[in-house]
Amino acid sequence: MAAPAQVVGSGALQTCSLDQILEALKLLLSPGGSSSSSLQITKRNVLLATLKSNLCALEDILKDPHWKKLKLLRDEIGNQAEWPQNSVDITWSFTSQTLLLLLCLKETMVRLAADFNPGKPNPRTPEVAPPLSPDTLSISQQKTVQSALQFVVTLGVCPYLMAGVGASLKHRTEFGAVVQDVVSLDATPHATRRLYTSCKVLLDVARHASLGSLIFCRHFGDIAAGLCQLGFCPTKGKPPTPAEEVLTEEERTLARGALRDILDQVYQPLAVRELLILQGGPPQSCTSAKTQLRCQTPAWLRRLCGQLLSERLMRPSGVQAVVRGILEGAGAGAAGGSDAEATAADWKKCDLIAKILASCPQQSLSPEDYYRDICPQILDLFHFQDKLTARQFQRVATTTFITMSREHPQLAANYLLQPLLAPLRRCLNIAEIPESDMVPGTILVTEEELSRCIEDVYKEIRKTSGVGELVQPLTG
């Protein structure tokens, strides 16, 4: 997505300190308190009063000469921004100011890093740690940024997602339910424009590596859901007129490109896991918690997630990403985590992964092309050294092996069984080798290759009902 215009040649940008920006963020995010003792005051009113009070407090301190540099920087970025920053809906005004401060933070961190010159290390004191880059955030500062990001996503992304797109905000937390009730969807700017702006600015802030890790680590799923809706949600009925159009076709195209960019950028098992959640969706209610009615994931989103998951699978190491994404997302934790043993024993998950891997995606030219690309990765699942990880992956490889052999026996024989048994076959088919090639010292198979082959065959047969089930479907 197009980034907001960069601030160039600004004296404020060169000298504004990180501490001052983070102090402004802390002020904006500070919890409110009510002096009223009335029991009639609601959480909704408390939230609205707190947001309004904090916005006023921010404007008050920015009038102080001590904060002049930050005010100049914020105003300059705000003037160049192409999105509406004020609204009668206080939640959007608050979100806008938080986004502006995050942009100030990102621009300042970029400039500090560019101007950093650590100098050469002193050879007399090699044990001394090198100086930290001035754009490094402390743990306390990271917590402040994380709080700001949480507010932006909760106030600026989640309320504007359609039913069935991502997890319902009102059923995530009690605070989420209050936010959903507070946000005014009828006020300007339009809800779709707010969603587009929030996603656009967050992606711009994420261009700084450390800020990007904070954003995608916790909020990747919500941002991806927003981009799916912005870029791929079909318009109902006839196409809107230019006056009715909220997003231009160019903006929708930018959203589609941004979605693919972040899917390529993040840890691939995370991308797989979030796409699976978007495709099926956790239980969420369409109306009230009493009815327990679940919103179905829209058909267009299911198709889109299926296509994107297939693209993840077809990438290098795509099989491992899919396996890790499903197992970790199902409660296994990171590979080898505390629940890995329980997950390894659950054959249902392995069956699910096997069905996914054995199904040729639409993006593939033919089943044979798909098997040729994917089978070497499946065989690699046998070779992980960590015990818990190996146990999980071996079960998946075994189940996939059998599933593929049943669905496409000849292809499985060509691209799974024959490569698996290749070292043994070379040893057994000595008679077929010309005598002229059998000079003393000729190595047919290395010890490592033969050992791995025997171990893989043992792993495969040990986890099936026997040799017959493995070999017969493959050999006919």
UniProtKB/TrEMBL annotation:
Residues 15-312 form the TANGO6 N-terminal domain. One of its GO terms (biological process) is protein secretion. Residues 313-459 form the TANGO6 HEAT repeat domain. This is Transport and golgi organization 6 homolog.
